[in-house]
Design a protein that fits this description.
- The chain has 162 residues and is mainly alpha-helical.
- The protein has 2 domains: 94 residues; 63 residues, no CATH class.
- Helix content is 77%, strand content 7%.
- The chain has 7 helices and 2 strands, in the order αααααβαβα.
- A two-stranded antiparallel sheet has the order 1-2.
- The longest helix is centred in the N-terminal third of the chain and has 50 residues.
- The radius of gyration is 25 Å and the shape is elongated.
């Protein structure tokens, strides 16, 4: 994989960016729409809490019902605010894809002729290694998945299938 990247760096980079741009574009549109919906709901909840307080002060609503409404709205609002923060982080992560591709290609070049795998290489190139269950317990062969920090492998597979 590393040799293919180095030999055809420009094409791999462009394919990677195009591939991720298509995925990112869909993800960004979806996330922005969801973000807008959640923000509107948060504003509506604030308005409803204010109306409940006003109705209570005017004597239109019993105190226990007012408190239960405010608690319910407040809980939903907190949940929405956490989801909004998560969506905003996801949007930021999606926009950093191009930079990460360049960094990954630089690191691949740096370690192309490495005689053995080192800790430093793992930190720079790998996101995680997922080791499956032990054969004694699962009855199946152990599966080990290596997840790179940047998914250039999917672009290479796509290119090879063409």
């Amino acid at each position: 994989m590393a040799q293919r990247i180095v030999l055809d760096e420009r094409a791999i980079r462009e394919d990677f960016i195009r591939h991720n741009a298509e995925l990112a574009d869909k993800a960004i549109k979806s996330a922005k729409k969801e973000l807008q919906t959640k923000r509107k709901r948060t504003e509506e909840l604030s308005r409803r809490m204010q109306l409940a307080c006003e109705d209570r002060l005017k004597g239109k609503m019993p105190e226990d019902i007012c408190i239960s409404f405010i608690q319910k709205y407040s809980d939903e609002q907190k949940k929405l605010e956490a989801e909004i923060a998560e969506l905003e982080a996801k949007l930021t992560e999606t926009t950093n894809t191009i930079q990460s591709a360049d960094e990954f290609i630089r690191n691949i070049k740096k370690y192309l002729e490495a005689p053995k795998l080192t800790r430093e290489m793992c930190y720079e190139l790998l996101d995680r290694v997922v080791v499956g269950g032990h054969p004694k317990h699962t009855g199946k062969e152990r599966v080990i998945d290596i997840v790179y920090k940047v998914d250039i492998a999917s672009v290479l597979r796509y290119k090879l299938n063409k």
